[in-house]
């Protein structure tokens, strides 16, 4: 059903995501309605349900993947929560998360390409300037594989690129009751596939991992490798 949720408007796209059973919570729906994808995808037909290039060999994910992410993390993106968006790219998902955590919450968007941090900051400043004024969103340059411990621990962590292995630093930065979703490379025979993993940290610190679905993301890597990659 995914890949069939394109629209000519933000509202039409969201309606199709709901009808497809991908956008499953009212709070995730409200966030996607409040944050217009067209302000972050600066190409024609921004509401197509597919990834779009934003430069520097990265993409803004397809709307159905954003809808899955926000729905899966809805309970952790509560009012006043702290969230980390690794590979924040255009800033779209960081802005959606910021809507969900409210004015008392905080979202850190991290990317290792300084120009992408400039783009995401500009996008959110134009679309939701109050998020920046309230310091509800902060974008930082850094290696997302290491997380951003300075503002942790986090109730929700989203990783928007595929890791070779699940980064332990991100698990360490999850708060008790927190949830991490991350695409991770898996090898089946001669194929390199990607599984979207859900990692939940219990109140006692124990961790539960769950495979959700197979996905296709750009690699979570270093800046040099990323700029050499042709996604």
From TrEMBL:
GO biological process annotation, one example: methylation
Enzyme class, UniProt record, top EC level: transferase
GO CC annotations, alphabetized: cytoplasm
Keyword flag Protease: no
Catalytic reaction(s) noted: [protein]-L-isoaspartate + S-adenosyl-L-methionine = [protein]-L-isoaspartate alpha-methyl ester + S-adenosyl-L-homocysteine
Subcellular locations according to the entry: Cytoplasm
Main location group: cytoplasm
EC number(s) stated in the UniProt entry for this protein: 2.1.1.77
Keyword tags: Cytoplasm, Methyltransferase, S-adenosyl-L-methionine, Transferase
GO molecular function terms attached to this record: protein-L-isoaspartate (D-aspartate) O-methyltransferase activity
Record-stated family: Belongs to the methyltransferase superfamily. L-isoaspartyl/D-aspartyl protein methyltransferase family.
The name this protein goes by in its record: Protein-L-isoaspartate O-methyltransferase
Organism: Habropoda laboriosa
